[in-house]
């Protein structure tokens, strides 16, 4: 199994899940700033030019955070990464979709790459401001949803890996203060040995 990743990118959540599972895997590092994702060596694996990309033991390739996380959980039931309870499972899926489609793509996407949302230089600040509003609102909503829970939907699950990567971006990349329950969740994640190993491997510890 091989994870194509970029340090500190959303792939960090899948990297955490691989460490939680604890089975051997390889890492293939991409430098997104240098455009590795557009080179033939990578587009022959994933023509979408995105990380995370997971090459499975049979050589087939999976893309999209939610799909990769779901498959890892389903293929490794002993790691208990997906709640057995139907309601918790549904809530986990809902949170992953919200993190990827809204917090990441709509919110942080505007903050990191404003040019993708409006090519005119004079619009960039307004695009970033809208991104910040989307991120702030999303963290407020997530905060109320995870109140009173140890992890996002109860026991640790794939939803925590998704929530972790956007919390990591807020804290480490954008200096955005997380609301209380999200900040506590982030600290809980940082305290997990899997996350410590990943932060070290990706050059953040
Ligand atoms: N919908 C994709 C989003 C993946 C994504 O946007 N990855 C970013 C890094 S966080 C990327 O590879 N960007 C490279 C680029 O767009 O050039 C998923 O869920 O995995």
Automatic annotation (TrEMBL):
Limits of the GST C-terminal domain: 85-205
Domain GST N-terminal: 1-80
Coiled-coil ranges (or none): none
Matching Gene3D superfamilies: 1.20.1050.10, Glutaredoxin
Family matches, as Pfam families: GST_C_2, GST_N_2
Name by which UniProt lists this protein: Glutathione S-transferase
Organism for this UniProt entry: Chelatococcus reniformis
């Amino acid at each position: 199994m091989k994870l194509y990743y970029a340090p500190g990118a959303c792939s960090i959540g899948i990297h955490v899940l691989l460490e939680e599972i604890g089975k051997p895997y390889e890492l293939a590092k991409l430098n997104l700033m240098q455009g590795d994702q557009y080179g033939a060596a990578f587009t022959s694996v994933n023509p979408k030019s995105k990380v995370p990309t997971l090459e499975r033991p049979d050589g087939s390739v999976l893309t999209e955070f939610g799909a990769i996380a779901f498959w890892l959980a389903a293929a490794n039931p002993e790691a208990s990464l997906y709640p057995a309870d139907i309601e918790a499972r549904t809530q986990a899926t809902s949170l992953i979709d919200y993190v990827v489609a809204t917090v990441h793509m709509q919110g942080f996407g505007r903050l990191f790459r404003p040019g993708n949302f409006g090519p005119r230089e004079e619009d960039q600040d307004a695009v970033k401001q809208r991104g910040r509003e989307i991120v702030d609102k999303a963290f407020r909503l997530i905060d109320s949803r995870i109140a009173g829970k140890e992890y996002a939907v109860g026991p640790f699950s794939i939803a925590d890996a998704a929530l972790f990567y956007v919390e990591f971006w807020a804290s480490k990349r954008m200096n955005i203060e997380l609301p209380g329950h999200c900040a506590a969740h982030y600290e809980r994640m940082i305290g997990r040995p899997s996350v410590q190993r990943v932060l070290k491997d990706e050059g953040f510890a």
